[in-house]
Task: inverse folding
């Protein structure tokens, strides 16, 4: 997710992201005021308001701006990309970035 750490909407998105269940997840909160992103394997878009993204299998969602929308997207993507019995680590729901590979 992206947004200033002092922004109420960014804090609400971060709390919602922490509540999303998953077998594997990586949650990053990038505040541009803190400098470059430490784990720069993704490219965040420049947006005027805080946003979160879900990425799985090398693709990312459009930005989500409301915690309720983040939860709804997580539920949809969790059903679509859930882990298989053979490979429980297959699902990778990661609220984070804005780059499609």
Result:
């Amino acid at each position: 997710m992206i947004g200033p750490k002092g922004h109420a909407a960014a804090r609400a998105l971060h709390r919602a992201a922490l509540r999303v269940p998953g077998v594997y997840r990586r949650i990053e909160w990038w505040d541009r005021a803190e400098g470059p992103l430490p784990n720069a394997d993704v490219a965040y878009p420049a947006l005027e308001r805080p946003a979160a993204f879900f990425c799985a299998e090398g693709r990312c969602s459009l930005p989500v701006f409301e915690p309720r929308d983040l939860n709804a997207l997580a539920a949809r993507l969790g059903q679509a990309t859930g882990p298989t019995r053979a490979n429980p680590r297959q699902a990778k729901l990661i609220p984070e970035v804005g780059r499609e590979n």
